Amino acid sequence: xxxxxxxxxxxxxxxxxxxxxxxxxxxxxxxxxxxxxxxxxxxxxxxxxxxxxxxxxxxxxxxxxxxxxxxxxxxxxxxxxxxxxxxx
Length: 88
Fold this sequence. Notes:
alpha+beta, Arc Repressor Mutant, subunit A, 3-stranded antiparallel β-sheet
């Protein structure tokens, strides 16, 4: 990532990004992947991070609990959820 892209990504981070430092490494990895890729499903996150789906699910739950990640139902497949970093 270039310096400009890094600054842009930092400006899009949620206000409570500091709370991520207290989370397990798997949650930090999931947050960074979402920061880089934007929105992803749980399965896409598991594939990208090479973590088990159960670990990704736990990481997403922890990230949602502190308000860093939000989810919505996928329009393409209502059985799936799309996860994104909160920007406000």
